[in-house]
Amino acid sequence: DTAVSQTPKYLVTQMGNDKSIKCEQNLGHDTMYWYKQDSKKFLKIMFSYNNKELIINETVPNRFSPKSPDKAHLNLHINSLELGDSAVYFCASSHYAGARGTGELFFGEGSRLTVL
Amino acid sequence: DQQVKQNSPSLSVQEGRISILNCDYTNSMFDYFLWYKKYPAEGPTFLISISSIKDKNEDGRFTVFLNKSAKHLSLHIVPSQPGDSAVYFCAASARGSNYKLTFGKGTLLTVNP
After folding, report:
1. Phi and psi at residue B83, in whole multiples of 5°?
2. Which of residues 49-78 of A touch B (CB under 8 A)?
3. Where does residue A90 rank: exposed (0-12), middle (13-18), buried (19+ CB within 10 A)?
4. pLDDT digits (tens, 9 = 90+) for B72-84
5. Mean pLDDT of B20-32
6. Distance from CA of A25 to the nearest CA of B (A)
7. CA–CA gap between residue A106 and residue A93 (Å, rounded)
8. Which of A22, A50, B90, B109 is a good FRET partner for B15, with 20 to 30 A between their CA atoms?
9. CB contact under 8 A, A109 and B42
């Protein structure tokens, strides 16, 4: 019974295409995230939603658009894919602790995107 | 601008010995630190954390030490087991950052039987 599940796990596509990665969590958390792990292995936050409201939006190209239909889902849509978008994208969730700025994240298995 | 640095990309230890993984940070606003463990083809999983009001936190075989003046933390695993072989990420967050974790690059730990 997977806590944070992402689909697809692997995605190979051509430059210029549009693709989506879906994420669902069954932990009852109210905050969800997208992280990107690039070729240099850094895990960097892209977006965070709390109860469907965007609360973190790092410097990410406008081609990336997160969508949270409800607090258990956070999807990532990418337009006009570029070679540099190739990475592993991790979805995560947590309880929201507000200003405390702390928290344990529960990660999905990752979605490896390869842009040719 | 690496605010969280793990300068050792890899570490190899013998089973039963101690593993020490190190992490340095530059942002003095960080007040909460976490270690995550990652196996291949899986997402990172939370291991242990420490608040800046403490200098040590222990959970079974895992202990995290925090030296705020040196902006340094370390994870000790003792005794090390082959199943501990994984990539270990150090992460930090600052008060009021909405759970924005800044991760290091990770250290690959290999525990040899």
Report:
1. -70, -10
2. 50, 55-56
3. buried
4. 999 999 999 999 9
5. 95
6. 14
7. 5
8. B90
9. yes
Tokens of B100: 């924005």
Residues B98 and A49: their CA atoms lie apart, in Å, by 10
Q: Kindly give, in sequence order, each residue whose CB lies less than 8 Å from that of residue A94, ignoring residues fewer than 6 positions away.
A: A29, A31, A33, A103, A104, A105, A106, B99
- How far is residue A49 from each of residues A53, B7, B96, measured CA to CA in Å? 5, 32, 15
Q: Which residue of A has its CA nearest to B2?
A: A42
- What is chain A's alpha carbon radius of gyration, rounded to the nearest angstrom? 13
Q: Give the pairing type, strands B107-112 and B10-14.
A: parallel
For the stretch A1-16, pLDDT in tens is 679 999 999 999 999 9
Asked if B91 and B49 touch (Cβ cutoff 8 Å), the reply is: no
- The backbone region for B90, taken as left when phi is positive above 0, alpha when psi lies in -120 to 50, beta otherwise, is beta
Render pLDDT for A68-115 as a digit per residue (tens, 0 to 9): 999 899 999 999 999 999 999 999 998 865 544 456 889 999 999 999
Q: What is the spatial distance between Cα B47 and Cα B64, in angstroms, rounded to a whole number?
A: 10
pLDDT of A1 reads: 65
